[in-house]
Amino acid sequence: MKPFSLLYYFVSVVLFIVALPLLIVLSFKQKYKESIPARFFLFKNPKFNATNAIWFHVCSLGEARALKPILDVLKNEKVLISTITQTGHNEARKYDAEVRYLPYEMYLPFWIKPQKKLIVLEAEFWYMLFSVARARGAEIILLNARISDKSVNKYMKFAWFYKRLLQKVDIIYAQSEVDKNRFLALGAKNIEVVGNIKLAAKIEKTKEYVKPECEVIVAGSTHPTEEKSIFDAFFEYKRNNDAKLIVVPRHPERFDEVYNLMEMYAKEHNATLSRFSQAKNFESDLILVDMMGELNNMYAISDIAILGGAFKADVGGHNPLEPAYFGCKIITGKHFFHQKELFKYVHHVQYVENDEIAKALQSAKELPPSMVEEEINLKPVINKILED
Prior knowledge:
Elements: H1 3-26, H2 35-41, E1 54-57, H3 61-66, H4 68-71, E2 79-83, H5 86-92, E3 98-101, H6 108-111, E4 117-121, H7 127-135, E5 139-145, H8 152-157, H9 159-166, E6 171-174, H10 177-185, E7 191-193, E8 215-222, H11 226-238, E9 243-249, H12 255-268, E10 273-275, H13 276-279, E11 286-288, H14 295-299, E12 304-307, H15 321-325, E13 329-332, H16 340-343, E14 346-347, E15 349-351, H17 357-363, E16 371-372, H18 379-386
Parallel strand pairs: 1-2, 1-4, 2-3, 4-5, 5-6, 6-7, 8-9, 8-12, 9-11, 10-11, 12-13, 13-15
Antiparallel strand pairs: 14-16
Helix pairs in contact: 11-17
């Protein structure tokens, strides 16, 4: 290793030792019980079996899903996928590929095998990943690359570090011209703007449900504190409107927590409540969807989608293409910085504060359904991936 890489590696070991007690505690939490042991202790997380393959690295659920149109073209290639989160890992396992959690950086020099390509999605910038993969012969491609408004100042403060990291990258496919200019400011080269690859994803439902005769509102991909604002708004709206609310929390480990909150609201407002995994119908006023893989099916029978992740400042929003595809009238918050590029392509969205959701529900009656007017050409990206 070069001196800087040795220093970086030493710091990563020290940080691991310092964080060890916290990692042990977190590994008992439902959200991390699989990912932390795999990433930080290599539990059931061996090296990839294949070598000279095409390796994709993604963070979580959304990025793993975004791979589908590309992987559909690579059916004859050896494909590897590494992930960070448990939901991303579960999604990646649906593909015909070897799937692993990406280990913590101090393990990578002993874990990474020689591969043909390493394609890293969005903002997964790990110095040892890039350094070791490159040293083992992989060509490194950044795909769907972005630097959000919220994080750009952080990147610029450490421009000296990111310049070193980005020197190891062969080509960057950026989401927008803004992202391209930010990468250029960090010293990156060979950058092309292709747009957001999530625009190429095939959006479909997996089951056919009969829409209730009343108005249906779905709260999709919600996070802590967001549900309370949505419930307050829903019951204010329901005073003068016949409507049902379907709630689909972003993280499955929160199902019980959200259900307990819904019970409190149901009692206060004399409303009916059900878990979809048990009732399998839409007869109640409030329905908790406590099953994975159902969100698109709920969008398909909904009139209005309240899209979570943007009503609080630390998440960055969620993909609006799915509710727009099914013609939902979209209401979301103003903190959608991670999805800014996608929202640019979706029309007729209401961006509101937490205390404005009830007013937005009323305004939705006068608005047309949301819609997407954009396409993306993945051919240059596919050609580069298949290039010898």
